[in-house]
Design goal:
mainly alpha, Serine Threonine Protein Phosphatase 5, Tetratricopeptide repeat, globular, Ankyrin_rpt-contain_sf, TRPC_channel, transport, Ankyrin_rpt
């Protein structure tokens, strides 16, 4: 006969735990967003530009992959300055990408992002 654990004991044990939850599902992305992120990961400049031209307003260019990386962070991780420039020209959200570029010592991206944020603050 299997012993059962009273609900009170289960609730006490669960009170000390942080509940795990999925932050992001890949299925939340549209097909265009999936192709966009995969193309950025591959460094395929022509395809990324075409997707941005074709789906720009309809697509969330700040979408994230299952690792919660935006296209800009992926381009920085891969040290792809051309893609960083392209994404910035489409007004992608910079967020903490500058910090990532500094951490990776990706000087070209640091300069580009500093100029980008400087341009946005000058009115």
């Amino acid at each position: 006969m299997a012993a059962t654990i009273p609900d009170e004991v289960l609730q006490e044990e669960d009170a000390d735990r942080i509940p795990l939850r999925v932050v992001h599902h890949e299925s939340d992305l549209s097909e265009a967003e999936k192709r966009f992120l995969v193309s950025v990961e591959r460094g395929d400049y022509a395809t990324v530009r075409k997707i941005l031209e074709d789906y720009g307003p309809e697509m969330d260019i700040n979408c994230t992959d299952p690792l919660s990386r935006t296209a800009l962070l992926i381009a920085i991780e891969n040290e792809n300055l051309e893609l960083v420039g392209l994404l910035v020209s489409y007004n992608v959200r910079v967020g903490d990408a500058l910090l990532h570029a500094i951490k990776r010592e990706f000087v070209g991206a640091v300069e580009l992002l500093l100029n980008c944020t400087e341009d946005k603050t000058q009115y």
